[in-house]
Fold this protein.
Amino acid sequence: MYKSISVNKNRSVNILDQRLLPFQHKYVTTSDYKEVIKLIKSLAIRGAPAIGVAGAFGCYFALKDLKNKKNYKSSIRKYLNQIEKARPTAVNLSWSVKRFKIIISDYKNLSYLDCLELFYKEANKIYNEERKVSERISINGLKLIKNHFKILTHCNTGALATTGPGTALGIIDKANKKFKNISLYATETRPLNQGSRLTVWESLMKGIDCTLICDSMASHIVNSECVDIVIVGADRIAMNGDTANKIGTYQLAITANYHKIPFYIAAPISTFDMNIVSGRDIVIEERSKDEILKLNNIRLSKATKVKNPAFDVTPNSLISGIVTEKGIIVKPNLRKIKKFFK
């Protein structure tokens, strides 16, 4: 059984290098916070919940590596900030790092060794929480599915993106076990092909009937194949329900709305950013132009101007509901989400 991240007895972690999938199944074993940052930035580990867990162990490794242990509190904050900035859009990473900043703030007279032990326990706690959370999301989303449903998803939201069964793909996996004749359409998810490389691979492993499509085919497939529902994940959700997810999600929501089929987000509560009211406040990560210009280091275009935003924002008006571990927020808006959190 594959895991996005696992913990060793010596307190190092194994991170599955998702850049090599589906053709190579290789783990990177590390206890170096700088390497964790590199793995997050390079998308060796990806998916908002999994990034949050990797960042948590990165916090522990950073404290463990400190040379100035006497004044560790003033030194560690700089390294925690470095980890937090590794992926700016995925809020689970900053949510995770802030839990370690709280430990530093709340325990004034804590010795270095005691703090190190608390950091390790907190990292493990986040790991186990995310596993349980994705299990609950997968179960809560089952009520959206029926026999013979045709489902469309985007990017990868399975076990590779979490420490449990997944979010959107976790729902689809459980639905495939419970209902008859479930079929999945997975977009290839350019430019890094998380759908064609990862979602298709996970679906084959789990026995899900999965058809790969190009991103530009989605509207045609929704119409011609009579797709019943679109379910995707999220990297950051504003308090009014506006949702940042992998680039290409917004156009899927528009397509679903036009064809009058439900469009659902599946994400843990940790993906909500309580500090922002709407999607206008979400910082969108701009990645290297080489992801679009090159394939296997071979240049495909002479373009001099390239845009490569990693995410887009889907407004709440296009979202039928958000599936969380605590239940489903139907037709999300600021009032409903505030009430939900209370």
